[in-house]
Amino acid sequence: MSSNVRLWYHWVLANAFAEVVGLGLVGTIGWLMSGAIGERSTVTVVLAFATFTVALGALEGAVVGWAQSLVIRERLSGFEGWVQATILGALVAWFVGMIPSTVINLMPHNQAELSPSISQSIRMLLAVGLGFVAGPLLAVFQYRILCRYVGRAGWWLLANALAWAVGMPVVFAGLHVAYMAVEPWVVGSVIVGTLALAGAAVGSIHGIFLVHLLRPENQLRFPLRCTGQPSATDEFKP
Question: Which of 19, 78, 181, 197 has the most neighbouring CB atoms within 10 Å?
Fold first, then answer.
């Protein structure tokens, strides 16, 4: 196995593990909080729950950032700041992701019931769009770290947009299947499998970009401060 393939393989495993643990913890804690709140849907409760859920995103960011940094350090010695950047990105991504459900929950009960139902196919399309938007939001702070060490780091934003445009529909589809299940062990198994699959799918896509970005000839001699903005015209050579 070549060093590039090994790096990609480790990256995929790290992302699968991180999403099972990170998103799994967020989902479990959020589910417990939702059960404690019950049917209370006052503005204060809805906003408090949304704020708490966004804050939980820091937990996912910490787990993902830690797991990813272990792999990146295989190529970049002295690499630092990734965990903190991933936490910030996760908070921003969760904030944007929580807006639609929070708005719906703030609607008067009768209006929420009258809102048009969305087919599963439309949900998947919306999931693709959400992933395409949330991916770069999650990655923008990572970009600010990565560009200190490698050239053409702006491609990391596109990599995450593509990766999460695939990963988010996997999450939506898996949660739909889990919702339809009855047995608790089936629900748990589906959720764990879904998170692992989503993490592996995301990691396999942006891992391809990362392997090329971390090539020795693309690494900067000394860590630098990023002085420019990511550019879509940066040349990406596989």
Answer: 19
